[in-house]
Design a protein that fits this description.
alpha/beta, Rossmann fold, 3 domains, seven-stranded mixed β-sheet, 14 helices, 7 strands, about 60% helix, about 10% strand
Length: about 400
């Protein structure tokens, strides 16, 4: 009995020392008087001591629970999109063999970037590796069925990329989550906690994108090709590069060279190669690029902005190619972008984005009139995925 009483006294002493260190008046804080029960003090102090001693562990458990829920949601997205892809292949392409094994093997493929210790000449290496992967993916998709047309093949390629990205996101989040949990390391899980909202936003966009690709309708990222494709109507289209077409048109005494990916397949073409070829035959005075761009929070979808430089996303190889050829020939590059969220960019095109077509076309004409004279020439490039957009 004496031993337990001494332990109570020790706990109370430590509790009072802690409150004294924090500058808290015990009597006022707890409203105690001389007849107060010491057990009441423990009811208040013990939780505080536990929280001080096990603060990080408690936060780790709470954060782990939240991340585990997101991880389960990611796993659902991954499995649902994989099933959607397989169902689409089986119902649309009707292959003679089960494509599941081939699709699952592709989901585990990886790409090793070239050594960047010496950055000189790294761009051609990256372009070579990425195009090798694209060519291999294209061959693998077409090997599912010999009767597959180019439109269906391009849609399956895009769906496969979305499923692969979801697969990778799930694996990375699971890795950091399990590592932090295994080590009971709260600081290790903090970066993941901060990134989870952005990861889930992208994951939800990719899941929704699968349905958009299956329908074969224009997506938000296709606004650039849609605008230039409309300008190309009633003109003769010629091949400029792989899955990329161009045509000529007159505008107030200027010659326009219009270029976009070849629709209505789901492709972005190869604008860098196409631009090099056109400039080698017809040197323009300016280049105008039209593309979708991610909006900032608070900006309205469909907002149009104008600037300078190569407006093109991706890994950067096409932008480097365009900048190189433009610099070599001293051709200024003007850019027009249509703002949208990441979800809007890869899902069915919204009305407010489609309604920007006329406004952008007028801005293209203004740039041409302000920066060129009659008799000069202009290249107008519509950048983006041209799914469902003809020319």
């Amino acid at each position: 009995m004496i031993m337990f009483f001494n332990k109570d006294l020790i706990w109370q002493k430590h509790a009072f020392l802690l409150l004294d260190f924090l500058g808290i008046n015990v009597d006022k804080f707890l409203n105690f008087n001389d007849n107060s029960n010491p057990l009441v003090l423990l009811v208040w102090i013990v939780p505080m001591i536990i929280f001080v001693l096990y603060n990080q562990l408690i936060q780790l458990k709470i954060t782990s629970y939240e991340i585990r829920k997101s991880l389960e949601k990611l796993n659902t997205f991954k499995e649902d999109t994989r099933k959607e892809l397989l169902d689409y292949i089986k119902t649309t392409i009707k292959p003679t063999t089960d494509p599941s094994t081939k699709i699952d093997r592709y989901l585990e493929y990886f790409t090793i970037m070239p050594v960047d210790m010496d950055p000189n000449g790294i761009i051609p290496k990256i372009r070579h590796i990425m195009r090798s992967r694209e060519d291999y993916t294209r061959l693998q998709v077409k090997s599912i069925s010999s009767e597959m047309n180019s439109m269906d093949a391009s849609k399956i390629e895009n769906i496969l990329e979305a499923v692969t990205t979801l697969h990778l996101l799930h694996k990375m989040v699971r890795h950091f989550y399990l590592t932090a949990k295994k080590q009971n390391n709260f600081p290790l899980i903090l970066p993941l906690q901060m990134m989870i909202p952005f990861i889930m936003e992208e994951a939800e966009a990719l899941k929704t994108a699968v349905s958009a690709f299956k329908q074969g309708q224009p997506i938000g990222d296709g606004i650039g090709p849609m605008i230039v494709g409309k300008m190309m109507l009633e003109t003769e289209k010629r091949t400029a590069a792989f899955e990329t077409v161009w045509s000529e048109k007159e505008f107030e005494g200027r010659k326009l060279y219009l270029m976009k990916a070849e629709g209505p397949s789901a492709t972005v073409g190869r604008p860098g190669d196409a631009l090099e070829r056109i400039i080698s035959e017809n040197k323009p005075d300016i280049i105008v690029m039209v593309d979708a761009a991610l909006k900032l929070e608070g900006e309205d979808s469909g907002t149009v902005s104008q600037g300078f430089g190569a407006a093109i996303g991706g890994i950067g190889t096409d932008r480097y190619q365009i900048e190189e050829v433009a610099t070599k020939h001293k051709i200024p590059i003007y850019a027009i972008v249509i703002k949208q969220s990441i979800k809007e960019a890869i899902t069915l095109m919204k009305k407010e984005i489609a309604d920007s077509t006329e406004k952008v076309t007028l801005q293209i004409h203004e740039i041409i009139k302000d920066n060129t004279k009659p008799g000069q020439s202009v290249i107008v490039i519509g950048v983006g995925n041209t799914l469902g957009v003809s020319q």
